[in-house]
Amino acid sequence: MSGNLQERVTDALSRIRNNRVGANVLEAEMVRDIATTTDGKVRLSLFLSADDDATVVREVRQTLQQIQGVTDVRVDVKDASQSKRPEASPPKRAATSRALPVMGQEPQSQRATTPAPTPVAYPHLGNIIAVSSGKGGVGKSTVATNLAIALAQQGARVGLMDADIYGPNIPRMMGINAAPPVENEKIIPLQAHGVKIMSLGFMIERDQPAIWRGPIIMKIISQFLRDVQWGELDYFLVDMPPGTGDAQLSLVQATMVHGAIIVTTPQEVASGDALRGAKMFERVAVPVLGVVENMSYFICPNCDDKHHIFGSGGGQRLAEELQVPLLGEIPFFAGVLEGGDRGEPIVVSGPDTPSAKALFDLAGRLSGLLNAHAGAT
Q: Cα(174)–Cα(176) distance, rounded to whole angstroms?
């Protein structure tokens, strides 16, 4: 199985061309550190120079995802100018006979030896909580936005950092978008609904594509932590991009994250992706505080019955597998989506709706959980 998968991966990569150099990505030595697992996971590093077309990243990922037997693909994009390329075998030979080691089984001498950055403590930020998901489209940013406002309305000092650098939606959802001022070499966060906010969306045009490489992502996250005048906070929520990529690793390398909240939907495919995201946090010693199941059910306006239109039980099963609490089940309500588009989160525009009440309950459970942890330590 593993050998056949390795051959399919190599063959697929050999058909992806870099038009700038007139060779495929293997011949051009753009792809390195390819690794596979016996259950179909593929990981590789893709080195891009300033002159390369960034769309090759999407082409590599989509090509690998279509290979029979591949269950998960991770492409780590790196700056070619910051890495000295090793001496390579003749290009044609590399494309046909390159060995693909199984992750975790390569010789110790071949494993990375570069030490990870030492996380910096920011005690003035209070409880630093990552709001994450395994895939997009589950309402992670909606939960982060409303949770931040709910905590603020309960009397807490709250900051919200939009670390979803590929799709910074927090400005639209919070109804605020302007260039943040700078005073005494510190960026002043914008405020809305009682929450201090910082987002890359404040600094780029709405239609500007966000094509960021690993080192740049680390710099952006570090700057948002270090150079923004957050003041004294009780909660610092970080809206993460979907998946388990550079942004997640950059955050945990940049600061001490107190815990992660995993947002999922009831479907099995969503909870399976969320499980991988949760395991990533556990691997880097960030405790998973709990699971939030969004779009959990629909309440019929005529009969008040609950209808599980997206399936049921995915969040509970995920919480049980992770041995963490199910912190909330947020019902599906069209007003949540409409309010997010208007910049009026549901806890502001419809505080008495079932969805808003569930989000306020979520804020209360999170506060109680963190207070209990603090008391235990």
A: 6
pLDDT tens digits, one per residue of 323-355: 999 999 988 877 676 777 778 899 998 899 989
Give burial (CB, 10 Å; 0-12/13-18/19+) of 196.
buried
* pLDDT 10s digits, 246-268: 677 778 888 889 999 999 888 76
- Sign of the alpha-carbon torsion through 214, 218, 223, 225: positive
Q: What is the mean pLDDT of the chain?
A: 79
The answer, as to whether pTM is greater than 0.70, is no
| Cα 188 from Cα 201, distance rounded (Å) | 15
Distance CA 10, CA 79 (A): 22
Query: What gap in Å lies between CA 195 and CA 58, rounded to an integer?
Result: 35
Angle at 21 between CA 18 and CA 23, to 5 degrees: 60
Q: What is the pLDDT of residues 170-199, one digit of tens each?
A: 999 999 988 888 898 899 999 999 999 998
pLDDT per position as a tens digit, 50-87 = 777 777 888 888 888 888 888 888 888 887 776 554 44
Instruction: State both tokens at 28.
Output: 């051009």
List, in sequence order, the alpha helices (H) in 128-207: 140-153, 170-174
Question: CB-based contacts of 101: which residues, under 8 Å, 6+ apart?
Answer: 35, 36, 110
Distance CA 316, CA 326 (A): 6
In angstroms, rounded to a whole number, what is the distance separating the alpha carbons of residues 326 and 318?
9
∠ CA 284-161-360, rounded to 5°: 95
Radius of gyration of the chain from its Cα atoms, rounded to whole angstroms? 22
| pLDDT interval class at 311 (50, 70, 90) | low
Q: What angle do CA 1, 243, 219 make, to 5 degrees?
A: 125
Distance, CA of 351 to CA of 345 (rounded, Å): 9
* Residue 119: exposure state from Cβ atoms within 10 A (0-12, 13-18, ≥19): middle
Q: Are 98 and 106 in contact, with CB atoms under 8 Å apart?
A: no
Per-residue pLDDT tens over the stretch 119-173:
788 999 999 999 988 767 788 899 999 999 999 999 999 999 998 877 788 999 9
Which residue has tokens 């510190």?
186
